[in-house]
Amino acid sequence: MNPTLSELEAQASVERAAFGGDAHIVCDNLVRIYKTEGVEVVALQGLDLLIQRGELVAIVGASGSGKSTLLNVLSGLDVPTAGVARVAGMDLLAMTAKDRLRYRREVVGFIWQQTARNLLPYLTARENVELPMKLAGKARRGRALELLDLLGVGHSAGHGPAELSGGEQQRVAIAVALANSPQLILADEPTGELDSETSAQVFDALRKANRELGVTVVIVTHDPLVSEQVDRTIGIRDGRTSSETLRREDAEGRLVAEEYAVLDRVGRLQLPRDFMNALEMERRVRLELESDHIGVWPAREEPSHEQ
Amino acid sequence: MRILPLARAHLGTMAVLAVLTLSACLLVAGLPRLVQGSFDDALRESLRGAGASQVDLTVRVAANSREDDLIERAQFDSRDAEYRALLPGPLRPLVVPAGASTGHASAKTYDTPVRGSGGMRFVNLAWLSDADRRVRWIDGRAPGAPSTMAYEQATIPVFEVGVVDEARAKMGLRLGDVAIIGESHPAAVRIVGVFAATDPADRYWSHHGDVLRVTETQPPGKLDPERRTTALISDSGLAKLSGADRNLRYGWVLPVDPEAFSSLGTSEIATAITVFDRGVALRSVSVSTRTWLETHLPELLTAFSAAMATARTVMFLVLGGLLAVALGVIVLSVHLLTDRMDHSLALARARGGSLRQVAGAGTALTTCAVAPAALAGYALSFLIPGPVTWIVHAGPALVVVTAAGFAAARLALTHRAPLHERRDDVVTTRPSARRITLEALVVVLALAGAYLLRSRGLTAEGAGDDPFLLFVPIALTVAAALITIRCYPYPLRLLVRLAARRRPAVPFLGLTRAARARSGSVLPVLILLPALGVSVFASVISGGIADTQRLASWQNAGAPIRLTSAVELPPDAVERVRRVPGVELVVPAQTAQVQLGYGGERADAIAVDLDGWRRVLAGAPISVPAMPGVPSGVPALVSPELRGRGTIDVGWLRRAKVTERGVVSSVPGFFSGKPFLVLPFEVNERPSVNALLIKGDADPAAVLKASGSPRATVTTQAAELASIEGGPLTTTVRSVLLVTTIALAAYALVAVVVTLVIGAAERARALSFLRTLGLSDRQAQRLTVLEVLPMILITAVVGLALGLGLPAALGPGVDLSSYAGGVAVGEFDLDLVTPAFLAAGLAFAAVLGAYVHTAISRRRALGATLRVGELT
Q1: A200 and A117 in one domain?
Q2: Per its UniProt record, what PROSITE patterns does this chain match (chain A) (predicted)?
Q3: B867 touching A (Cβ < 8 Å)
Q4: Rounded to a whole number, what is the largest CA-CA distance in chain B?
Q5: What's the complex ipTM?
Q6: I need a surface site. Which of B303, B400, B403, B610 has the fewest CB within 10 A?
Q7: Same domain, yes or no: B543 and B482
Q8: Is the CB of residue B78 less than 8 Å away from at least one CB of chain A?
Q9: Phi/psi of residue B773, each to 5°?
Q10: Whole-structure pTM over 0.80, yes or no?
């Protein structure tokens, strides 16, 4: 039966639930284009991402896949060209400079890959942690030490970065990121310069922050081993989310990782490259709808082509 | 953000900045004081040399009726106070209090004839308020109260007077003589005393030259001269002196103190004098009397200002260049400091620092380095003698404001967005049409300005600074800098193309890097260009002044040693001088005033062996022309005033017909300006030698002694030069030019080094990268040198050309004669040695800096360098 005009009107006026609903981080069709000297580089090509509050998520991808760009956008250091990016309900595209400053002060904390870049060399660990609080104008006595203790580097509060090991430096950097009690921590390859043992310590620290302080943690890495340490791993390829790996405990308490492909809102799907190569899928495929799944078949060789 | 740890981390850069600021403030605040001080000294010297009657303010009252008469001293005193009360503000500090210095009051008659002298003798009467301390009585007594006597059926007053010693001899006046003076209202004078000045050399006597000396003038058609003297009367004599009877003038001298003058307020003083003049004129008591102000002070001040105007402009041009360069170098080091802080501030900005916090911290740090140093430099400048002008305060303030302002602006721009994606490696984009138009406009304006300045010359009557003269060199420098910045990559790219074809990689790489006009290379060009331009300009000017001073000294002396005598020098005296040790050559000369034709026309003449004189002048910057031969008669060289007369009949010791054979504008050591003749030595049958031109380094005193003439004077070229060089202006100007040149060279050097350091990280990364590809250390050094050198060389060449071209471009606008003993500094010889040395030294220092720089950066580990500052 055709709907009446009033029914259509009512349908149109009903506000559709926004994409991602009340997720902590929402990226919808996010585009970031760099322009230098007339050359355009599309770093993000319509990326979709949903992260819930309190999640510990890793974003993995090859070099140049756009993960650092994504992180810069999420940390409020960079403005996307188009799309939607919302963190804790704040629209990252529509923020004024003042909002952006408040966002960096209160909502987000971050950690860079280079240990030297995270800390000011001439300040002690404690002073480094106090710096963001002072910048925000709400220094709290003792908080710096609490954080350093929590992350297991309380003993080096009075030491300068030069006197700390790489792992300690990164843990202090996590403390710095946590200084203003942010809701979200972004870490760009935090273990990129560390050996595996030290990396584990740093991950412990991040996990601790996630569990004990309830902070959402997003880690960007191109190290696939990291995915073993987090609840969810999001793969990025060519500026778009391509896969997700979920880790959960099965009935026997074993950790099981399941990899999923990401289906976007308009139904696009990236097939893993090796799957495509194995079946020599190229240009077009055949889809068949079954009762509980969709089959993807290589295109049939058409006799008309032979002629 | 906390400043202290940040400061501790950048202590080195801050120290450099502080030292630069200190030196800049010291120079900027100190040199103007020095210059101003020397201007003041020159003004005071010129006022001291001018004579009290010209400098002092004299209020004169012409009294014509009895009611205007002042009959007692108290009246004079009250008038004096009255006139002083009229003095406008600017004059008050200059005028010496009553009774001190040359201040006094006087009453003087003029044109008072002695009866029966046929109008050939005059005895004027004068009362001087301070006669008791100005003269002493050498014969008779001081005059007393007047009496009366009967004369031609009338009772006339008899003034007791004292006359000057000279009047006794010249006018035949004796003690006890009584003379009747005045035609219509006769009076008698009785000479009761003879006086002489206590101190004849006192400046005071320039007011009353007629009192000390008998004035002799030659009236036309008379054989004897007319003689006048002024006799002094006593205080009580005043009562009988009336303006109704004779030409009487009262005078009040308000002496001004030359030491109280400053060259800054001359126009203000001139205005105040006009105001005072008007005020005084309004005090005239009645219609019959007239009151006016007599002084030559405004003329003196105007003449001084005119002479000083260009010189001052040139000085301030040089100092302005110094200020600009100093500011440039300071800005460059602020650039370095902000670069160094970049990491800290970027981190703080990313961690939630607001733009105000971040830029504020950086600016505060810059101010921490600059402000105390500026204060110290400002304080130190007070050790330098000289008056405090506004620029002394403004200069250091400008330095601090510029440094802090640049830091704030640069930091605000850099950290506007928290994550700054900078692409320093990208070649700058094509300049906009608007910018090119603007630059072309500046160039055209500068050239047009220079052309106008050349064709116009100076505003002759402008006593103040000529702003146009200041504008043109600045515009020319900016234009040259713009052209250099815009054009220097082009020849380099040509070289790059050539280098690309050749096998070695280093020239290609080095020149390619040099040809990429990065934003950082603009600032050094803007510093180096004026630095070199101004220092070369200063050295050219100072060289020109030195040459002209030497020339002027030779012009004044005419020979290494010149002996002139008022009386004839006998042949044996000449012979004695010849034998003085050190004397190599003696050329005798005769000088006199000669009669031209048979009328009253007179001219100076010198008879001398010009060939001999030329030998005396061998090696000197001046020479005398040769005397052309004539078939018959006496050849002569004449001054321009006597040009074109052909044959002149000259009456000297004998009459001679001389033939004009050439025109000369001056005779060194003797004449210039007035009409004169140069004749062969043999013009007189019996030479009457009264001047000797001596070559050699004999002792002037020995020469004088040997001449045996009591009225001879010796002038030496060395003494003339010393007196020109020793003038207050000359010494200061030369030392200021020297200090400026050294300071500019030092600043240029600092600019090169700071530029190298600013580019260090980027260059180190590039070199490390190339070294992983197989670049050797030697090649790395050559690469750095090749990268830095083209910019410095091109800037040095342009700066050199600018500095050499400025004097020519300013041309007639620059008159430095006041620094060179009055002789115009006309030709600036292109003495390339000093400027070229400056430019070459700078280039050498740059190369050295580049080598040192690579040597230091070599010590860094490759891996570390490649990772430092790597983004993302």
Answers
A1: yes
A2: ABC_TRANSPORTER_1, ABC_TRANSPORTER_2
A3: yes
A4: 129
A5: 0.74
A6: B303
A7: yes
A8: no
A9: -90, 0
A10: no
